[in-house]
């Protein structure tokens, strides 16, 4: 079974002298959908940025898709990022582009897809999430619910190997939450994408999560058959 994420005794954070998580041991294989919960400031965003190669690990080992990521070259980062779909906190969109341009960007340049193929790929998602009326608007014209829906669709468009969702339910109305949950259930059933979901709030996990972790000021602990471990030295 392919290992998508592997941290071994890693120190993670913005400051080498004051890592937010240390030591972190975390392994996620293909199909091992994972939920990590924790309050603001405990290291969720730093962990996401480390997975994306924006932050480095200060100590220990880190692999993505079975490739060493301690000091990755640019070509490897580009390859890895094409395999990841990301919904950042607040569903961040590019402000100078319309909703359509935000959605089409990775299809047009990441996969060199023709315009008519882009529209064919987008249309089912636009229908499902009610986004047709928003296509010519800019991110500044959207409310939090609309921004999060657009960001979620952008994250799943390419059928990524790894889907990272950072607080996907924040700002959504009940209908938006149901639509995201329905889409996640479909993604799990298709079996091609592994989900890594981060949440500031404790949420009732879906039945498909194989690993559940809790970030606290003392690090990452977990529950299930395989524990997610990160306990600070006292």
Automatic annotation (TrEMBL):
Transport among keywords: yes
InterPro entries in alphabetical order: AAA+_ATPase, ABC_transporter-like_ATP-bd, ABC_transporter_ATP-bind, P-loop_NTPase
GO terms, molecular function: ATP binding; ATP hydrolysis activity
Stretches assigned to the ABC transporter domain: 5-233
Keywords: ATP-binding, Nucleotide-binding, Transport
Transmembrane keyword on record: no
Protein's name in the database: ABC transporter related
Organism: Leptospirillum ferrodiazotrophum
Organism lineage string: Bacteria, Pseudomonadati, Nitrospirota, Nitrospiria, Nitrospirales
């Amino acid at each position: 079974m392919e290992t998508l994420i592997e941290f071994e005794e890693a120190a993670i954070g913005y400051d080498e002298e004051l890592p937010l998580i240390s030591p972190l041991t975390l392994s996620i294989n293909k199909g091992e959908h994972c939920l990590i919960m924790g309050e603001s400031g405990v290291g969720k965003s730093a962990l996401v940025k480390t997975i994306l190669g924006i932050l480095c690990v200060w100590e220990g080992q880190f692999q993505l898709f079975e490739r060493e990521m301690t000091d990755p070259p640019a070509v490897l980062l580009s390859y890895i990022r094409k395999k990841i779909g990301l919904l950042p906190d607040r569903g961040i969109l590019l402000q100078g582009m319309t909703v359509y341009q935000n959605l089409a960007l990775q299809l047009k340049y990441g996969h060199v897809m023709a315009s008519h193929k882009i529209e064919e790929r987008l249309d089912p998602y636009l229908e499902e999430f009610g986004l047709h009326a928003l296509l010519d608007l800019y991110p500044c014209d959207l409310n939090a619910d609309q921004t999060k829906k657009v960001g979620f669709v952008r994250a799943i468009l390419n059928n990524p190997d790894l889907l990272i969702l950072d607080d996907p339910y924040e700002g959504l109305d009940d209908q938006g939450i149901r639509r995201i949950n329905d889409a996640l259930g479909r993604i799990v059933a298709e079996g091609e994408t592994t989900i890594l979901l981060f949440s500031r709030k404790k949420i009732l996990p879906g039945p498909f999560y194989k690993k559940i972790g809790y970030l606290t000021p003392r690090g990452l602990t977990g529950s299930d058959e395989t524990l997610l471990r990160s306990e600070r030295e006292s």
